């Protein structure tokens, strides 16, 4: 691939020392070269950007479905009754996410990159934090609701 670029003979005749506004030395392309060669989509920066976008996508998709899990009940999410429709949506969502990320024709079409286990775990951190925050907020909501009921004389003996 290098043989098809102006860099086929090396960089000595193509680059010249230059100084930026801060006085830092760099190597710059000579102006006599014409258009500068562009990097292909296989360079490290491009692939790193693709990984970041994929991690963001995985985080957002998982946050959506786990957010629904916490909003299904005023109590802690683990006390909610089983719901076939939610369970189906959860499985469908996770399956679609796996297909979008790990099936090569689909991930290439969507511009995503497969995630290693380490990166997938990192992408799961924001959804887990959201669930924790939602559960903390719901506990405060339940406390406020009990106070409100107590001030209005509404009591239930089976409430915790």
List keywords for this structure.
mainly alpha, 160 residues, 2 domains, single chain, 55% helix, 2 strands, elongated, two-stranded antiparallel ribbon, 4 helices
Number of strands: 2
- Spatial strand sequence of the major β-sheet: 1-2
Q: What would you report as the Rg, rounded to the nearest angstrom?
A: 27 Å
Question: Which parts are unreliable, with pLDDT below 50 for 5 consecutive residues or more?
Answer: none
Q: How would you describe the shape? A: elongated
Give a verbal description of the structure.
There is one protein chain. With 160 residues, this protein is mainly α. The chain has 2 domains: 2-33, no CATH class; 44-151, no CATH class. It is 55% helix and 6% strand. The protein is built from 4 helices and 2 strands, in the order E-E-H-H-H-H. The chain has a two-stranded antiparallel sheet. Helix 1 runs parallel beside helix 4 (117-151). The protein starts with 14 loop residues before the first strand and ends in a 9-residue tail after the last helix.
Q: Could you give a quick summary of the protein structure above?
A:
The chain is mostly helical and 160 residues long. The chain has helices at 44-70, 84-102, 104-110, 117-151; strands at residues 15-19, 25-29.
């Amino acid at each position: 691939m290098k043989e098809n670029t102006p860099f086929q003979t090396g960089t000595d005749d193509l680059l010249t020392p230059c100084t930026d506004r801060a006085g830092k030395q760099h190597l710059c392309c000579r102006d006599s070269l014409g258009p500068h060669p562009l990097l292909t989509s296989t360079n490290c920066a491009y692939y790193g950007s693709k990984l970041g976008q994929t991690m963001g996508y995985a985080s957002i998709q998982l946050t959506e479905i786990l957010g629904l899990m916490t909003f299904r009940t005023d109590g802690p999410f683990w006390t909610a009754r089983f719901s076939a429709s939610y369970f189906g949506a959860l499985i469908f969502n996770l399956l679609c996410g796996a297909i979008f990320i790990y099936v090569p024709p689909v991930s290439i079409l969507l511009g995503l990159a497969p995630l290693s286990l380490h990166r997938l775990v990192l992408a799961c951190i924001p959804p887990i934090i959201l669930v924790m925050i939602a559960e903390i907020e719901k506990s405060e909501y339940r406390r406020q609701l009990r106070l409100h009921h107590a001030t209005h004389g509404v009591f239930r003996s089976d409430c915790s």
